[in-house]
Amino acid sequence: MRIGAVIQARTSSTRLPGKVLKDLPYGSGTTVLDQVIRRVKRARRLDEIVVATTEEPEDAEIVRIARNRGVRHHRGSTRDVLGRFYAAAGRYGLDVVVRVTSDCPCIDPGLIDAVIERHLCAKADYTANTLARTFPRGMDVEVMNFGVLEKAFSEAVDAYEREHVTPFVYERGRRLFRIEGFESAAEAGLSDIRITLDTEEDYALLCAVFDYLYDENEFFGVEEILDLFAGKPWLKLINSRVSQKRAPGTLAEEMEEALRLLGLQELHRARKLLEERYEGLHID
Predict the structure, then answer these.
(1) Interatomic CA distance for residues 90 and 97, integer angstroms
(2) Among 110, 180, 91, 107, which Cα is nearest to 144's?
(3) Is residue 214 pLDDT above 50, yes or no?
(4) What domains lie within the chain, and their CATH numbers?
(5) b/e sequence 178-196, b meaning 16+ C-beta within 10 Å
(6) Residue 182 CB partners (closer than 8 Å, separation 6+)
(7) Would you place residue 13 in the very low, low, confident or very high pLDDT band (cuts 50, 70, 90)?
(8) What confidence category does residue 112 fall into, taking pLDDT thresholds of 50, 70 and 90?
(9) Dist CA 15 CA 200 (whole Å)
């Protein structure tokens, strides 16, 4: 049985283009993607690591980084991320696939191993620490059998299911697959900590986290992050107004999210107008 991690990476992110090529620590010459690969390589249960990027010319730099770090790469569709992910896993013969994204430079190798262990021991089809949020955003680990990925690739038709890889599994596949959750054992919740990279504010926070922790331990993990935020709770203020990108499945869910975002940005007149426009309207 071959267990491998597929790291999704591209430079054309919508909110912060080129984010995975930014220096971390700041000014170090080591990119966010470098840090993700370095950390994933320390997971003991992995037989293979693949960086899955696009065929766009600007993503040649991602291929170069993967090669320099001694890991595999695969290039595929920009829009059909599920297809790209599936092809990368199939190309390198993975039986169990770990999904990691390149905007998570604090990913904990020990956590990757723990989720894999839970997946194998439970004989699950899909295991994730994202089903119930008890870890910081940026510590996301999903583990799935290749057969699950294959079924999703074959049957997922909605655009958001093709763009986000696993919604088909955890939203529509509960009656098809054995799904296992993985939750934090920490007494204090970690779910309100955001150490993923999607905006300039996120980057500022990550630079601060690395400034505090990196010199002492380049591979600091969940426990060190928890201790840091417990001692310096003001760190959360840096990106507290950033909204996590979501993949709503219906128009009603999109409307709900749009209203929430307008409120978050204090665009109250626009929110009121939108509410009045759709008041009493049935949205499927």
Answers:
(1) 10
(2) 180
(3) yes
(4) 3-181 (3.90.550.10)
(5) ebbbbebeeeeebeebbbb
(6) 114, 115, 118, 127, 128, 129, 141
(7) confident
(8) very high
(9) 9
